[in-house]
Design brief:
By secondary structure, this protein is an all-alpha fold. It has helices at about 10-30, 45-55, 65-70, 95-100, 125-135, 150-160, 165-180, 190, 205-220, 220-240, 240-260.
């Protein structure tokens, strides 16, 4: 379910494409400065996993998954590796120096700049990765993937939504539904965070509660009510923070356009 703030973040697909474009530019630079066999490409398919994670803002609501996994969605089925924010790729010390523009080895004080490679080819001042990042973002590399503003506002909208009268009321209906199944929780957040649900995999009780949770969410319309309440709050916050959010949206547009050009 989409929320207004999503217009101020790269979509999972846009993020994945931006990573592909970034490393295509980086690879071209690395080969230009003498690493002719250098090759690194981000893994594809990460957007699906990111979307699945973002789809659980209001907790689990898929009954079949709840019956099988409880409150533990299996994101592990979609490997998220170095290319999309997981493990770092491994490069040699010389490659690292050319990527970052910093000479390898210990230094006193500020690290020394890497001026050239073993083949005597000049290294960009900011390294191949930094140069590629500046090209991708139009010189705004320091703010690439900086979602702090949107995440902070998203946290505010989520907390405010919990106080919305319609959300409070639907939580009460959900709680009554759970009680009819002999389960005592004030809110779906309490059920999800039940401290008795421990271990590496969901136990029988956790699966029972998660299944009942999804059933009660469906019967009360909880997810739609909660989503609509938070969407209204986010629209209000957008009006209050228009200038900051417009800058973020403009940068995202630059990244999308450059990614499209690089990957043509």
């Amino acid at each position: 379910m989409s929320l207004p703030f999503e217009a101020y973040q790269l979509s999972p697909e846009d993020y994945e494409r931006s990573q592909q474009a970034l490393w295509k530019l980086t690879t071209a630079c690395m080969q230009d400065v003498g690493f002719t066999s250098f090759s690194f490409a981000p893994s594809a398919g990460a957007s699906e996993q990111i979307e699945e994670h973002e789809d659980l803002r209001y907790g689990t609501y898929n009954q079949q998954e709840a019956e099988r996994l409880g409150y533990r969605p299996d994101f592990g089925q979609h490997a998220r590796v170095a290319a999309v924010g997981g493990e770092e790729p491994r490069f040699t010390a010389e490659e690292e120096a050319a990527l970052d523009g910093v000479s390898p080895g210990p230094t006193d004080g500020e690290p020394a700049k890497a001026r050239s490679t073993r083949s005597a080819e000049p290294v960009p001042e900011e390294g191949c990765y930094g140069q590629a990042l500046d090209e991708l973002t139009g010189g705004q590399g320091e703010t690439y993937l900086d979602d702090s503003t949107v995440e902070e506002l998203g946290g505010q909208s989520y907390e405010k939504s919990l106080e919305d009268p319609k959300v409070v009321a639907v939580f009460a209906r959900w709680s009554a539904c759970m009680a009819s199944k002999s389960l005592t929780y004030k809110s779906p957040i309490d059920a999800n965070n039940d401290p008795s649900f421990t271990g590496d995999v969901a136990g029988t009780k956790e699966k029972q509660v998660a299944t009942a949770d999804t059933q009660c969410k469906n019967s009360t319309g909880l997810v739609s009510v909660w989503h609509d309440a938070e969407a209204a709050i986010q629209r209000s916050l957008i009006s209050e923070n228009g200038t900051k959010l417009a800058k973020i949206q403009a940068l995202d547009a630059v990244i999308r356009a450059k990614s499209a050009a690089v990957l043509r």
